[in-house]
Hints:
This protein has helices spanning about 5-10, 40-45, 60-75, 90-100, 115-125, 140-150, 170-180, 195, 230-245, 250-260, 265-285, 305-310, 325-335, 365-370, 385-395; strands at about 85, 105-110, 130-135, 155-160, 185-190, 205-210, 225-230, 290-295, 315-320, 340, 350, 375-380. By secondary structure, the chain is of the alpha/beta class. Helix 3 (about 60-75) runs parallel beside helix 10, helix 4 crosses helix 9 and helix 6 (about 140-150) runs parallel beside helix 7.
Amino acid sequence: MKEKIQFDTICAKEVPDPRTTAPHILPIYATSAFAFDSIDQGIDIFTGKEKGHVYSRYGNPTIEAVAEKIGRLEAFGLDVDPGAILFSSGMSAISTLIMGLLKSGDTILSQGNLYGGTTELLTKIFQPLGIQTTMLDLRNLEAVEQQLKTDPSIRMLLFETPANPTLACVDMEALCGLAKKYGVYTFVDNTFSTPYLQQPFKYGVDFIVHSTTKFLNGHGNSIAGALVGRDKELMRTKIWTAMKLAGTNSSPWEAWLVHNGMKTLALRMDRHSENALGLARFLEAHNKVDRVNYPGLESHPDYVLGQKQMRASGGMLSFELAGGLEAGKNLMRKLKYCSLAPSLGEVDTLILHPASMSHLNIPKEIRLKNGITDGLIRVSVGLENITDIIGDIEQAM
Ligand SMILES: *Cc1c(COP(=O)(O)O)cnc(C)c1O
């Protein structure tokens, strides 16, 4: 065939869309930019007159499809039509919300027992920029109301329930009631529960963040985050603008992996919860164990609240051996199947020592005040046969 254009031009040129029938599985749109049919269409899309894509930092079909699915799950069965955005990590979702919503002089009211990275973000990055954080025990509702009443600079109430790694819970309905009374945004990290086990929108929460790296993906092969906001317009304007300009967007590859993992979310969360309860009951009955933190155990201080807010208690627990730090280190040395890894929410069981790993950079007095003692061991209970998980930990004790 006689070609009209040159060999190297054929190499450089894109091929026409070869699609005949629609793919069954969401494709990965690996493209930086989107091409316009005409200059007029380009202008209409840029000015928002016509819906369309421009550049993958602003939005991309793969990323948006996955964000929308997470939004649907958070709003499932509720009278909420939220906006959802996918980010490069859980941390970038949290930082983008704060950047988009707050300004210097504003204060965040939160708890001492947050995810270690969140505490560091608030104190090391936002504090020097003039956004202060006050930390309280958010289970003390009187103290929370007193703080809201006396400090008008508070613009946001940020919490985690259950929280890392003691699985302490806070009362979302009560906190949202107070926040509404004082005109304050509420923001919850729902990473541990996923919308299958807990839907914070039910209790009036404004913003929900996920490290999708954990249970939503569930297979430990991508880093990404999601933010779901009750006010779709606010998500579409202020928050999307902050994402676009700070460049905290997700990538289509990571989004695709999150989506692939989410297909089995309900099945996995049931099994994670069932296995964790089995392990918690075994540990609680063991004479070498001093304390077990699992909200599904009647002995947990937040058992009643956990039962109210969650469908099941999830895959995370922590415990303290009678021998403290040395006994804990010994146990971790002897494990055969459980992995020592600083993540959670994966298919296999992961064990971590918070004092020397996830909470290493948190001052010791804050750590101890929140029950993160030197001998505490955190377990992300996996999907293995429960007999093998218990067997491995039993032989290591
Ligand atoms: C892991 C985690 C984060 C941070 O998410 P990344 O995806 O690692 O940035 C935030 N909150 C909780 C509860 C987490 O477990």
